[in-house]
Structure formats: structure tokens, C-alpha cells
Amino acid sequence: MPVVLVPGALRAEAGGEGRLNVEADGSLRAVLDEIGQRWPRLERRLRDETGVLRRYVNVYVDGEDCRRSGGLDTPVPAAAEIQVLPSVAGG
Amino acid sequence: MTATLAIGTSKGLFLASSDDDRRSWRLSSAHFPGTAVYAVAFDTSRPVPRLLAGIDSSHFGPTVTVSDDYGATWQEPDHAPLAFPGDTGAAVERVWQITPAGPVVWAGTQPSALWRSTDGGLTYELVRGLWDHPHRPDWGAGFGGQAIHTILPHPHDSRKVLVAMSTGGVYRTSDGGETWAPANRGIKAYFLPDPWPEFGQCVHKVARDAADPDSYYAQNHHGVYRTTDGGDSWQSIAATLPADFGFTMVTHPARGGTIWSFPLVSDGRREPVDLRCQVFRSTDAGDTWQAQHQGLPDDPYYPVVLRDAMCTDNATTAGVYFGSRAGDVYASRDEGETWSTVAAHLPDVLCVRAVTSGGVGH
């Protein structure tokens, strides 16, 4: 079962949890779709309504930046660790 | 009289409250710290005014959240309050304006779109008539983005709404939003080859006259205008202003013909005239203007006041408020005659709205 690590800034949208166990595997898109079903306010902070990952949200699947490994089609094995990290940006 | 002033900044929402007829103010800590608040509104049609905030995280996107207890708690529905239908291929980038009007709450966004809520501002539906307008592909983006930033529902006819966007200009509907027509005749677009186009103007802000619902005042990207025929034609009211650039325009809540603005030197010199922190008021619908600066800083003053960072409240003797990009906020309890400092050293002020024990500011 994949686990999603939620950054502190978003835990309020995940019921206060920092680790989310999800059923979906196969692709990052499937994982985010499940998050959208179970924690919708969290999911829309990661993706806009067109399904695109927000510009300053980085997602790592087993340590690999998804933007370099297939985007939302990045494979997600059953035991994957998915880490959500805000990028270093701001003013 | 009690009063609450909501101050949206680039790094959070601050609430200032007064219980001595706006003489002194207590400032809250930041709500949504680190998150930009481009739009804020009080819905006074409810037994307890609802505070609505359009917040915009640089990382996690925009949303709208509401509070029925003056910010003690906030609620955001599980569903996205605003989301473009899938067939549009668009995504909401920022909520620029929230305008309660009786049973409807309107919102304006970037990209330029108008939204309507009938559940108190929790769920918004895209107004297709404007989104599908044939002009939309030619609406441009200013430096701040392409957005609908002004929404003025008619006070007596719910079918009539006037909006303004940058760039694009003024549009209006008289059939509840099904069809829209530009209303920019007389407003100059000096930055286009044809300076008098049907649309494409960069109208920064429009405000409605308190007494005559067909009279409006507009601060344009150079040019200050008035219409008395609902937008059929606009005439300059900049003759006695020291400059015709700026972003703000607000009206008295009850008295027709009384308006305020914060002029800036020019497009290329976005700073107050004479580097003086001063508001200009007209009590004759813009025919003549007078400076108001008693109580405002005397030192050379460079900050800009953004389009929604000025408002009035609805007290009989209107309060006037503005905040700057330097993070200072000023209030007047006597229609601009004298001013006091509400807050200083805040993040850039993006918007202000005020509600007194009697209602909401404009």
C-alpha cells in the first residue's frame, strides 16, 4: 500500500495527518485521484482543476522527482513512498 | 458604533476592529499567514455578516473561504468553490473580487471570468454568457494578470450587472448575464494603435454613484471618467485632478456625487503626486477635486495604493480607508477630512473592506 507524506503546511487539509495510506497504485495520477476522493481540499492544492500539478508543488516517488520520471504517469509500486514537497519559491 | 476593517495583504488577512466610532483600532494577527488575500468582502444580508476571503497561495493555488464569526473560524467546502468546467480547459489562477448582492455572491477571477454563487459564497458557477463572449480571445493581460476585478450589480434590477476587467474594459448585461456588451465609449486606450476602441481599455476600477444607479466613476490606465447613462458614454472628470493615473475609485455609501481617489503621477512614475500621501475627494461628481491629507504622513511618500486597497464604510458620516504597498493603513472617520493610522509595517496591502454596526463599506 503506497504511503503519501504530507508537508506540514497541508496537514490541516489531510485531517491533521502527515502520512496517508492509499489504496491506489499503478500511477501517480491514480494516487492523486484517490486523494481527490478522500481528501479533496488537499488534492486541489496539489493539482488545478485541469489535473495539472501546480507549478510550485513537487512530488517525489521513491525519491525521484515525478517531473523527471513521467509526470502523473510515473509508476507507483505497491510499497512506494510518495513525498509532497513545496518547492523553494516565494517573496 | 463598532467597525471592522478587513485588510488583505500579500501575506495574510488582518482584521482591525474599533468600538469607539472608528477613533482607535485593534489589529489581529494574520489569518492565512504567508498567503495572499486579493479579495475580501462582508455579506451583510445575513443575520451575522459573513466574511468572505479570496486567498491565493503561491504554492497551493486559490480558493475562497468564509467566516461567520469575524474570523474566529473559517470554513471551506470539500468541493472547490470555483472550478472551471472541464470543457473550458481553464484553471482559476486568482480570485480578484468578491461582491455580495442580496441572495447572490459574485466573484471575478483571473483569467477573466465572472462567477455567481447562490449558496452564500460556498459554490460558484461560471457565467457562461461572458466567458463565451466573442471578444474574450482578444482580452489582454496587464502586469498584474488578466482579470475581472470589478463587479457592480444594479441595486434595483438583478438582471443588470456591470463588470470591468484589465484589459478589456467595461462590459454590462441587462438580461442576468446571458448576453454582454462592451461599454467603453469615451474611455481612451492610448496604448493601442486606435486609442478609441470598442473594447481593450485598461480600466483599473469602477464605482457606482450612491444616489443614481446609472452613474459610475472610472479610474482608467490614464484617464478618470464619469458616465451618467449607465455606461453608454463616458466623459473625463480629470480636469482638476493633479494627475489622471491611479488604481482606486470609491464612492460615498449614501450621498450621490461624492467620490475619492488616490492619484499617481503617471504610468511611468507610479508614485503619489509631489511624493505626498494624499487622497482626493470630489463632492460634485468629479467636476472639482480637493486634496485631503490632514493626519497622513508628511515625509516624501512613494508607495502605491492598489485598486482594491481603498474603500468606504456605510456610516452616515462615511469612513474612508486605504492601505499601501508599504503596508501602512489609514482611516478617516469624517469623510477624509482627517486621518489616523490603523496599522503600519504590514505586508503589501492588496484590498480593504469595512463594515460598521450598520452595514458594509463600498
From TrEMBL, chain A:
SUPFAM superfamilies named in the record: MoaD/ThiS (SSF54285)
Taking the record's annotation, the residue ranges forming a coiled coil are none
At the top level, the lineage of the source is Bacteria
One of this protein's Pfam families, by short name? ThiS
- InterPro entries linked: Beta-grasp_dom_sf (IPR012675), Mopterin_synth/thiamin_S_b (IPR016155), Sulfur_Carrier/Prot_Modifier (IPR052045), ThiS/MoaD-like (IPR003749)
Give the matching PANTHER family.
SULFUR CARRIER PROTEIN CYSO (PTHR38031:SF1), SULFUR CARRIER PROTEIN SLR0821-RELATED (PTHR38031)
Please give the name of this protein: Molybdopterin synthase sulfur carrier subunit
Species this protein is from: Winogradskya consettensis
Automatic annotation (TrEMBL), chain B:
| Keyword Hydrolase appears in the UniProt entry | yes
CDD domains registered for this protein in UniProt:
Sialidase_non-viral (cd15482)
Q: Name one GO biological process term.
A: xyloglucan metabolic process
The family database entries (SUPFAM superfamilies) matched by this protein are listed as: Oligoxyloglucan reducing end-specific cellobiohydrolase
Q: Keyword set for this entry? A: Hydrolase
Q: Which domain of life is it from?
A: Bacteria
GO MF terms here are:
hydrolase activity
Gene3D superfamilies (alphabetical): YVTN repeat-like/Quinoprotein amine dehydrogenase
Q: What is this protein called?
A: Glycosyl hydrolase
Instruction: Give the species this sequence originates from.
Output: Winogradskya consettensis
